[in-house]
Amino acid sequence: MSQSVITLYDIHSTIPQPWAPNIWRIRFILNYKRLPYRTVWIELSEIEATLRMIGAQPTSYRSDGRPVYTLPVIIDPLRSMSAPVVLSNPNTIADYLETAYPARPVFPEGSRALQALFVHYIQDVFVKPLLPILVPLTHQRLPERTQAHFSRGAAPTPPPTAMVGPQREQAWNAVREQFDFLAGILDKNTSDGNGAVAMGRDVSYADFALCSVLIWVEKVSPHDCWARIREWNGGRWARLYTRCREFMDVF
């Protein structure tokens, strides 16, 4: 393992570019702050074993007390003379990177609380109507080895079923409601000319959280889901995607 750069753990899939939104939130920060890092790709079936091995903390616990290990996780070898810093949970990692590397802040002074609320809305409310549409499409892009792991495990998980017909259009109506609501909120920003970013002028963690969802849509379903969403609300979401594009490098 390199001793000079941050390591970011990401999910291996058949998609040429990474897609997982929670992990993209951290990759955005690393790129925006111009921090050197490398990506280590893990099969979904190997996440728990890998994270236990490197000493990462679980991100949550099941009702029976068993730990749940999820990505993103970073290892930062630069911040300690005795041992590297190993962190899980995207919000914890974001706070750490902002504190440890304050140059080029993603939380402008006085904005952290409001941005935390915005990000909470994105991950707990805004994205929910998209899940029934995107999860089956994402499952199809996982390597066969990973799909087989879920279907033959101790508690076999059937593959998620893609919605069709009226059920799918109903789901899209719920998605459109969330995008319309958020567009109405962002319309209150005018200082950047189109209100595309949450803070009104400069990109911030809130924009990275939202654009991470757009990347998930674009990578998993570029010609269907993204082709639909990018035209909504006067092309606002395509503008935000373009605004964040310079921070989309993958190392």
From TrEMBL:
<feature type="domain" description="Glutathione S-transferase UstS-like C-terminal">
    <location>
        <begin position="113"/>
        <end position="247"/>
    </location>
</feature>
<feature type="domain" description="GST N-terminal">
    <location>
        <begin position="21"/>
        <end position="104"/>
    </location>
</feature>
<dbReference type="Pfam" id="PF22041">
    <property type="entry name" value="GST_C_7"/>
</dbReference>
<dbReference type="Pfam" id="PF13417">
    <property type="entry name" value="GST_N_3"/>
</dbReference>
<dbReference type="InterPro" id="IPR004045">
    <property type="entry name" value="Glutathione_S-Trfase_N"/>
</dbReference>
<protein>
    <submittedName>
        <fullName>Uncharacterized protein</fullName>
    </submittedName>
</protein>
<dbReference type="InterPro" id="IPR054416">
    <property type="entry name" value="GST_UstS-like_C"/>
</dbReference>
<dbReference type="InterPro" id="IPR036249">
    <property type="entry name" value="Thioredoxin-like_sf"/>
</dbReference>
<dbReference type="InterPro" id="IPR036282">
    <property type="entry name" value="Glutathione-S-Trfase_C_sf"/>
</dbReference>
